[in-house]
């Protein structure tokens, strides 16, 4: 491709990364967690949907920090630009004004909260114990060819099939089935 | 700090690549100012051009030939009373225009005005643009819902359904253009915007003319889809005054409405820039390989100065034709000052073209190259802007079911066919 | 400051996962339950991509793309079920959606 760009990118990764990275990480992670709390506590469904959009965009920013630009792009296009529009459409069609005046949390909410806290404790202990097993820094594939390498794994290259080509075909079949299912389920008379 | 200021000036990569935040900020400010200026000019041009298409004169009183009309409009919108419906959701009502504006302006981060004149050349550039422009739909949906009244809600649902439908066809033809970038020696394409224009440079042909007529059909589908994406005529059912009392921005008044208008025009310029970059060769001048002698280089580098010279000449003719009445004295003086300004810019550009004539790397030559790149890019985008106005003046609008039928039943199969045929032809004739 | 390691990303992913689980277990509005499921899937994706960076290969990222595709299909079908149900019973309350046929 463009060798000047490649070397420029690798020098940036080596030189510029440590200065701003912790600050960006804490801002994005804090934004994601705070919006996540807003998603599960808002009374109004549209507010919860907007908070979920903020969460999705900050997670896309975290992907960019993890040197995964293609996954970040897919996240923005599919999740924030597609799924959330679908959610907002359904919220408007269903018009749940009445439900926003009812009780928000069901009667078993202390039990649910306790179970979630136990789950969090399990996660923290698993991460703390397993932390010694992780290698410090793995090799990073260069960011400028991320898309090409993902394409090689999905579609195959140089005449061979990729590792995930079969899974890719099944995923497209799954999407076809989902489209047909959604269309048929919402018909008034089949 | 001066070091970081000067260290970028000799580089040949974008500020994002060079890691230079200061210059990236400067570029962002320039883009912001430029887009605002472009929106103001576009506003004036739309009213004058529509008027002349309809055999009337348009605004003539506010400045000479209505040149100060957009400023008067902006002042009026800023000073208007800010009305919010009582039952509307206050926070969401306030945030909806901001979402649309953010989505429209963030796209400018990757638009290449030249081989190193972009804020940042992300290597997923076109994917980023498609994703961020699909965030604009959210602003419209939320604006319609927050107004808490049925006209905006129906307008918002129609508008967002239309935008989502045409995004599919748009994405597929963009993929077919990107496919053409991989028809080089190494067999690897690129998603970065600067890389796409450089691929056209390498292959020696604008992608609109490649594999004729496949490139042209792809460009035509993108040109139609981008008009539908920005809710402009003839696809403006969702916001037409006679149909839905202005659709999703009915309840917005004053400054909030001007934010929507700004977002709409900025989105128009952004999708036109995508079309220019993908199919029309971006910043390259016409015939760079066929007419490559230094004499031709010099002639083509005179174009910016000659364009402004032509505009100055039109302004001078307008000054001469003003009625010789004392009521028109101020307008005459104003137009003469405007003509003098345009003439001054023309002289400056001609001076730079002459001074940077030789092909060495002196400062004047690099300046001239930069100005030429930006000039050809902006000229092509300006042609698209005029086409938008021409479409609005000429064609009646589509009914909503006709609009959706075209999006799904006509454009999607054609774009799929173009994609498959481009891939097949690209493999057979590499 | 301490450099950002994989551990930091795992903690963020775990927090998002637990928030999603709380949303699924305690909210009564079906649309918000579906949104909490999307939160859970995003936490899983973040986990996958963080580990992909740690090990230096791209398997995690490809898996994350497949999870995203899956989430899109599931959101579409789930919301279709919700609309079909809402047409009959006019409620989006999870506690009242308790009949297979009426």
Describe this structure in words.
The complex is a heterotrimer of chains A (190), B (430) and C (102). Chain A has 190 residues and is mainly alpha-helical. Chain A folds into two domains: 3-107, Up-down Bundle (Four Helix Bundle (Hemerythrin (Met), subunit A)), CATH 1.20.120.1200; 142-190, no CATH class. Chain A contains seven helices and no strands. Chain A has helices at 3-15, 17-41, 45-65, 69-94, 109-130, 146-155, 165-185. The radius of gyration of chain A is 22 Å and the shape is globular. The relative contact order of chain A is 0.07. The model of chain A is unreliable at 1-19 (pLDDT under 50). Chain B has 430 residues and is mostly helical. Chain B is built from 17 helices and no strands. In chain B, helix 5 (90-106) runs antiparallel to helix 7 (136-146) and helix 8 (150-181) packs antiparallel against helix 10. Chain B is globular, with a radius of gyration of 23 Å. With 102 residues, chain C is mostly helical. In chain C, 76% of the residues lie in helices and 0% in strands. Chain C has three helices and no strands. In chain C, helix 1 (6-26) packs antiparallel against helix 2 (30-55). Chain C is elongated, with a radius of gyration of 17 Å. Chains in contact: A-B, A-C. Chain A binds chain B through residues 1-2, 4-5, 8-9, 12, 15-16, 44, 46-47, 50, 53, 69-70, 72-74, 76-77, 80-82, 84-85, 88-89, 92, 143-144, 146-148, and chain B through 12-13, 17-19, 89, 91-92, 95, 121-124, 127-128, 130-132, 134-135, 137-138, 141-142, 145-146, 153, 157, 160, 164, 186, 188, 190-191, 195, 198.
* Oligomerization: heterotrimer
Class of secondary structure makeup of chain C: mainly alpha
Termini Cα gap of chain C: 62 Å
Helical content of chain A (DSSP H or I, runs of 4+): over 70%
Q: Quote the beta fraction of chain C.
A: under 5%
By CATH, the superfamily of the largest domain in chain A comes out as NADH-ubiquinone/plastoquinone oxidoreductase chain 6, subunit NuoJ
CATH C-level class of the domain at 28-90 in chain C is: Mainly Alpha
CATH architecture of the largest domain in chain A: Up-down Bundle
Low-confidence stretches of chain C: none
| Rounded radius of gyration of chain A (Å) | 22 Å
> End-to-end span of chain A in angstroms?
53 Å
Estimated helix fraction of chain C: over 70%
Number of helices of chain A: 7
How are helices and strands ordered from N to C of chain C? HHH
CATH topology label of the domain at 28-90 in chain C? Helix Hairpins
Provide a count of the helices of chain C: 3
Mean pLDDT of chain A: 82
Radius of gyration of chain C: 17 Å
Largest two-chain interface: A-C, 84 and 75 residues
């Amino acid at each position: 491709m463009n060798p000047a760009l490649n070397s420029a990118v690798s020098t940036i990764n080596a030189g510029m990364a440590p200065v701003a990275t912790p600050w960006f990480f804490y801002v994005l992670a804090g934004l994601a967690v705070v919006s996540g709390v807003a998603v599960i506590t808002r009374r109004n469904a549209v507010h919860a949907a907007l908070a979920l959009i903020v969460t999705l965009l900050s997670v896309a920013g975290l992907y960019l920090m993890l040197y995964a630009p293609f996954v970040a792009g897919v996240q923005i296009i599919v999740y924030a630009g597609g799924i959330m529009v679908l959610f907002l459409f359904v919220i408007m069609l269903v018009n749940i004004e009445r439900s926003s005046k009812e009780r928000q949390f069901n009667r078993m909410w202390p039990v649910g909260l306790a179970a979630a806290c136990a789950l969090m404790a399990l996660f923290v202990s698993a991460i703390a114990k397993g932390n010694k097993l992780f290698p410090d820094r793995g090799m990073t594939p260069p960011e400028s060819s991320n898309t090409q390498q993902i394409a090689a794994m999905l579609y195959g290259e140089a005449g061979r099939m990729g590792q995930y080509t079969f899974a890719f075909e099944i995923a497209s079949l799954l999407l076809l089935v989902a489209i047909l299912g959604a269309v048929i389920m919402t018909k008034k008379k089949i | 700090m001066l070091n970081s200021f000067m260290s970028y000036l000799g580089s040949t990569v974008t500020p994002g690549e060079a890691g230079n935040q200061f210059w990236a900020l400067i570029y962002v400010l320039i883009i912001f100012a430029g887009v605002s200026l472009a929106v103001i000019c576009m506003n004036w041009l739309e009213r004058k051009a529509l008027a002349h298409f309809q055999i009337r004169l348009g605004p003539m009183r506010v400045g000479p030939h209505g040149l100060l009309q957009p400023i008067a409009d902006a002042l009026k919108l800023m000073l208007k009373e800010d009305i919010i419906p009582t039952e509307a959701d206050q926070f969401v009502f306030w945030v909806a225009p901001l979402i649309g504006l953010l989505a429209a302006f963030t796209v400018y981060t990757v638009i290449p005005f030249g081989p190193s004149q972009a804020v940042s050349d992300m290597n997923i550039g076109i994917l980023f643009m498609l994703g961020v422009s699909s965030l604009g739909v959210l602003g419209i949906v939320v604006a319609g819902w927050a107004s808490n009244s049925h006209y905006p809600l129906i307008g918002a649902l129609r508008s967002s359904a239309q935008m989502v439908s045409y995004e599919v066809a748009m994405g597929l033809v963009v993929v077919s253009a990107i496919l053409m970038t991989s028809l080089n020696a190494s067999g690897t394409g690129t998603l970065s915007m600067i890389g796409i224009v450089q691929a056209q440079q390498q292959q020696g042909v604008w992608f609109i003319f490649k594999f004729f007529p496949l490139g042209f059909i792809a460009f035509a589908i993108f040109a139609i889809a981008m008009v539908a994406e920005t809710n402009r005529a003839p696809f403006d059912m969702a916001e037409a005054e006679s149909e839905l009392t202005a659709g999703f921005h009915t309840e917005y008044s004053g400054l909030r409405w001007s934010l929507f208008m700004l977002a709409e025009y900025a989105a128009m310029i952004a999708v036109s820039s995508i079309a220019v970059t993908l199919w029309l060769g971006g910043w390259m001048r016409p015939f760079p390989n066929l007419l490559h002698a230094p004499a031709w280089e010099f002639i083509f580098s005179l174009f910016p100065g000659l364009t402004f010279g032509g505009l100055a000449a039109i302004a001078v003719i307008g000054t001469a034709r003003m009625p010789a009445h004392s009521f028109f004295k101020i307008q005459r003086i104003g137009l003469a000052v405007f003509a003098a300004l345009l003439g001054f810019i023309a002289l400056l550009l001609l001076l730079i073209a002459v001074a940077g004539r030789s092909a060495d790397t002196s400062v004047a030559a690099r300046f001239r190259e930069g100005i030429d790149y930006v000039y050809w890019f902006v000229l092509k985008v300006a042609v698209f802007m005029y086409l938008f106005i021409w479409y609005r003046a000429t064609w009646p609008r589509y009914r909503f079911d006709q609009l959706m039928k075209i999006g799904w039943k006509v454009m999607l199969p054609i774009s799929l066919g173009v994609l498959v045929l481009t891939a097949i032809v690209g493999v057979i004739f590499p | 400051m301490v450099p950002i390691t994989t551990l930091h990303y795992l903690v963020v992913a775990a927090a998002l996962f637990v928030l999603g689980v709380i949303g699924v277990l305690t909210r009564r509005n079906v649309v918000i339950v579906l949104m909490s499921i999307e939160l859970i899937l995003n936490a899983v994706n973040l986990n996958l991509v963080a580990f992909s960076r740690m090990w230096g290969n791209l398997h995690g990222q490809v898996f994350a793309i497949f999870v995203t595709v899956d989430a899109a299909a599931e959101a579409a079908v789930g919301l279709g079920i919700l609309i079909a149900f809402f047409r009959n019973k006019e409620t989006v309350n999870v506690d009242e959606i308790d009949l297979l046929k009426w």
